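User: Please predict the structure of the protein below. I'd like the answer in structure-token form so I can feed it into my own downstream comparison script.

Assistant: Understood. Taking the following sequence of 70 residues as input:
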Amino acid sequence: MTLIRFPLHFIEIDLTLSPEAAKIKASHKLSFADAFAAALTIQKNGTLVTGDDEFETLKGLPGFKMKRIF
């Protein structure tokens, strides 16, 4: 199975997303990669679909929505 079969969009990290991810990382116990995923979710007004329970610490963060799959 290849990645082409999935509706993926690759997003470049920019000077808008980086500081937001840093703020999330500084105030929550997350990896920096997870902080970027959270910041992008907020920026795009999306819902993060994850099986990672670390994102539970972000409940209540303005603009952050998630759905657990496991």
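That's the full token string. The first strand starts at residue 48 and ends at 50.
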